[in-house]
Amino acid sequence: MLKQSIVAVFALFLSSVLFFPVSKVDADDNVGFSVGAQLPENQLDTDHSYFDLRMHPGQQQDIQTIIYNHEQNDITVKVSVYNAFTNSNGLIVYEDREETDPSLKHPITDLVSLKEKKVTIPAEKSVSVTASLDMPEEEFDGIKLGGLHFEKVPDDEIASKGVNVQNKYAYVIGLQLSENNNEVTPKLQLRSVKPTVENHRTAVVAKLRNIQPALAENMRIRGKVFKKKGEKPIKELEKANVNMAPNSDMDVVIDWENNPLEEGYYRLELQASNEKDEWKWEKVFTIGEEAKDFNKEAVELETNNNRKAWYIAGISVLIIIILILLVYIWRLKRTGK
Questions:
Q1: Cβ proximity of 200 and 256 under 8 Å
Q2: CA 294, CA 285: separation in Å to the nearest integer?
Q3: Which of 14, 15, 159, 332 is a Cys-bridge partner for 164, taking CB atoms 3.0 to 4.6 Å apart?
Q4: Rg of the Cα trace of the chain?
Q5: What b-and-e string marks burial along 124-142, b requiring 16 or more CB atoms within 10 Å of the CB?
Q6: Cα separation of 198 and 251, whole Å?
Q7: d(CA 331, CA 324)
Q8: For residue range 82-129, what is the model confidence (pLDDT) as tens digits?
Q9: Which fold has domain 188-297?
Q10: What CATH number has the domain spanning 4-178?
C-alpha cells in the first residue's frame, strides 16, 4: 500500500516582539501542549510573556521555559533557536535559515545554546527547558531579536498502518536582548532589483535591507515600474502594515499580473514610510535573456503568442461561418429558380 503523507502545519506564535504580545498561554485542543516563559529579574517588561531581557557585555545567564503536556500520553517536543527574519508579506517570522543579512553581528543563534534539543514530557506533566545565554564582550546598541521554537514530534504509530500522518504543531516564544537605552533608528537600503518567478507567477523582486539593530514598524511601501525612459508606470505596488526585523532583508514582490517578462531596461521608483521616517529610491534594472526561462516556468502566462493564436482562430471561424452562409444563400437561390 502506498504511503500518503498528509502534513498539517499549525504555527502558534505565543509572543512576537511588539506585534503579538500575550500575557497568558493557553493550550489549543488540537495541539496538546503549551509553553510558558519563566521571566527572570532582568526582564524589562513583566506584562509581556516573551523574553525582553536587559543584558550586559560578557554576561552569562540561563533562562527557563516550561512545556506543559495536556495529553494523556507522553509526548516529545523538539526545541530550537531561530533568528528573526522578514518575509515577503512584511511580517516578522522566526525561521530556520542559515543565511542572515551581512549587517547582523552576533545573531541570537550564536548567543543562545540549548542543553536539550528534544524533550519528552510525561502525560499531564510539565518539564523545564533551559537555554543558556552567552553575550559578546563588546557592548552593542539596539536589540537582538529571535525566538525559542517548540515543535511537537509527530506520532509514528499511524505510519506503520500505511498512512503517514504528520501533524506539526509549534509554539514560538520571542527573545529580545538589549544592553542600553541608546536610541537606534532603522535604516533601509535598496539592495537589488531582479526579475523572477514567485509562486509560479512572473514578477520583479526588489530586495530591501534594514541594516540597523532596530525594528522598522508599521510602514507603507509603494512602488512603480517604468520603461527606462517612460513616464507612465507599467506595474504598480502598494503594501501597508509592513514590519521589518532588525538587521534583516525583505523581498518586495511586484506581481507582473501573468504577463510575460520582456527583455529590456526598466526603472523602479520605490518608497517606504511610516510616521517617523521616509525612504525613497530610484533604480534602473535590466530584464535579460533569463526572462525566457522565467516565462516558461510561470503558470497561466498570457503571452502575445497566445493572444495571436486566439485571434487567428477567431478569424478562421468567422471566415468559415461566412462561407457556409454564402453557400446556403447560393443554394436557396438555385432552388428558387
A1: no
A2: 16
A3: 159
A4: 28
A5: eeeeebebebebbeeebeb
A6: 10
A7: 11
A8: 999 999 999 999 999 989 999 999 999 999 999 899 999 999 999 999
A9: Immunoglobulin-like (2.60.40)
A10: 2.60.40.10
For residue 238, the one-letter residue type is: E
Looking at residue 90, its amino acid is G
Domain residue spans in the chain? 4-178, 188-297, 310-337
Which residues in 59-85 are b (16+ Cβ under 10 Å) and which e? eeeebebebbbbeeeebebebbbbbbb
Say whether pLDDT at 325 is over 90.
Answer: no
- Predicted pLDDT at 184: 97
Nine cell digits for residue 139: 557592548
Q: Do 4-178 and 188-297 have matching folds?
A: yes
As a whole number of angstroms, the distance between CA 83 and CA 313 comes to: 55
Do residues 227 and 318 lie in contact, with contact meaning Cβ atoms separated by under 8 Å? no
Q: What confidence score (pLDDT) does residue 154 get? A: 86
* Phi/psi of residue 26, nearest 5 degrees: -110, 150
Q: HEC string of the chain?
A: CCCEEEEEEEEEECCCCCCCCCCCCCCCCCCCEEEEEECCCCECCCCCCCEEEECCCCCEEEEEEEEEECCCCCEEEEEEEEEEEECCCCCEEEECCCCCCCCCCCCHHHHEEECCCEEEECCCCEEEEEEEEECCCCCCCCEEEEEEEEEECCCCCHHHHCEEEEEEEEEEEEEEEECCCCCCCCCEEEEEEEEEEECCEEEEEEEEEECCCCCEEEEEEEEEEEECCCCCCCEEEEEEEEEECCCEEEEEEEECCCCCCCCEEEEEEEEEECCCCEEEEEEEEEECCHHHHHHHHCCCCCCHHHHHHHHHHHHHHHHHHHHHHHHHHHHHHHHHC
Contact 298, 201 (CB under 8 A): yes
pLDDT of residue 22: 31
Query: Taking phi first (over 0 means left), then psi (-120 to 50 degrees means alpha), and beta for anything else, what does residue 142 get?
Result: left
